[in-house]
Amino acid sequence: MPVYEYECSECGVFTVLRPMHECRDPLDCPECGEAAERVLLSMPAIAGMDPAQRKALSVNEKASHEPRSSRQGHGAGCSCCSGANKSGGRTATAPNGAKSFPKSRPWMISH
Question: Which structural domain range is residue 15 located in?
């Protein structure tokens, strides 16, 4: 059963767990007994959302205060970020600063 909000003119807003077919009917205020009409004050929580979309929204919400940084590295085995030995790597640097990759596949593009 869903939770509905009602507003009493004397006592204010209160919430009630009620069957859907009774949501439009006025309800007596639990404090003073006066009839209170249903009001829409807060956004309803929809549980029928696609699970993948709900998970993506949850991940985005958790990461909103701490976005991913490039300082976190490119992953395991990345010689530019992991502190691996750069002199013995696959990159050969010419005296003019040009880089080549003699031990790599020629069609690969590096970062």
Answer: 3-39
In a domain, 27, yes or no: yes
In a domain, 17, yes or no: yes
User: What pLDDT tens digit does each residue of the chain (111 aa) get?
Assistant: 688 899 999 999 999 988 888 888 999 999 999 999 999 888 766 567 788 887 887 777 766 666 666 555 566 666 665 555 555 567 778 888 787 766 666 666 665
pTM (two decimals): 0.40
The span from the CA of 38 to the CA of 25, in Å, is: 8
Cβ-count burial of 91 within 10 angstroms (0-12 exposed, 13-18 middle, 19+ buried)?
Answer: middle
The residue count for the chain = 111
Total domains, the chain: 1
